[in-house]
Amino acid sequence: MPPSAPARPASLRDLFLSFTWLALQGFGGVAAVVQRELVERKRWLTHDDFLEDWAVAQVMPGPNVVNLALIIGGRYFGLRGALTALAGMLALPLVVVLLLALLHARMGSHPGVAGALRGMAAVSAGLFGAAALRLSAALVRHPLPLACCIALGAAGFVLVAWLRVPLLYVLPSIGGLGCVLSYYRLKP
Q1: Concatenated DSSP letters for the chain?
Q2: Is residue 85 located within the same domain as residue 146?
Q3: 39 vs 22: CA distance, rounded Å
């Protein structure tokens, strides 16, 4: 039985509301919830389509999830869809951020607020780690051996986190090396 085609947004309104909801859920880091929403809940993308689109969104300039919104909106509704998805990602979250900035300006020095913000940072890190683990399942189907993928990821981590090499240099070098190795592995 062939796999069913992914669903699609019913309308521009559906696209706008879905990306608004996505942006509000992932406050502080949409990456943790974007795969669950678009693949598992909405079924607008297959898992493999999501990984491909997410990879493209990551190498484009700008926030990854905004790039992904533009890609998905454009795929289903052209330029109007891309702009609608972008508006959904940014409009209401911008209002929330401005209100929170006003609130923080008034209450930011309170010890309870500082503690709450530290707690939220820990939760965000955990959500990001969970999303990374979920996406790592795709490495099984990657043409490079798992050890090579882990080595490339570890090299990127060491260069950025410990040696403080700018991502502008790490992404093309490590990413390029991964692409070249994959190409030679797939070459007939």
Answers
A1: -PPPPP---SSHHHHHHHHHHHHHHTTT-THHHHHIIIIIIS-SS-HHHHHHHHHHHHHSSS-HHHHHHHHHHHHHHHHHHHHHHHHHHHHHHHHHHHHHHHHHHHHTTSHHHHHHHHHHHHHHHHHHHHHHHHHGGGGGGSSS-HHHHHHHHHHHHIIIIIS---HHHHHHHHHHHHHHHHHHHH--
A2: no
A3: 12
- How many Å apart are CA 69 and CA 53, to the nearest integer? 10
Query: Which of 60, 87, 106 is where one domain is finished?
Result: 106
In this predicted structure, the answer to whether residue 101 has a pLDDT above a threshold of 80 is yes
Number of domains in the chain: 2
The total number of residues shown for the chain amounts to 188
Give the integer Cα–Cα distance in Å for 59 and 61.
Answer: 6
Its pTM stands at 0.62
Amino acid at 32: A
Residue numbers of the domain that contains 145: 139-188
Is 39 within the bounds of a domain?
yes
pLDDT in tens, 32-73: 688 888 988 999 998 888 988 988 998 888 888 899 999 999
What percent of the chain clears pLDDT 70, i.e. is strictly above it? 94
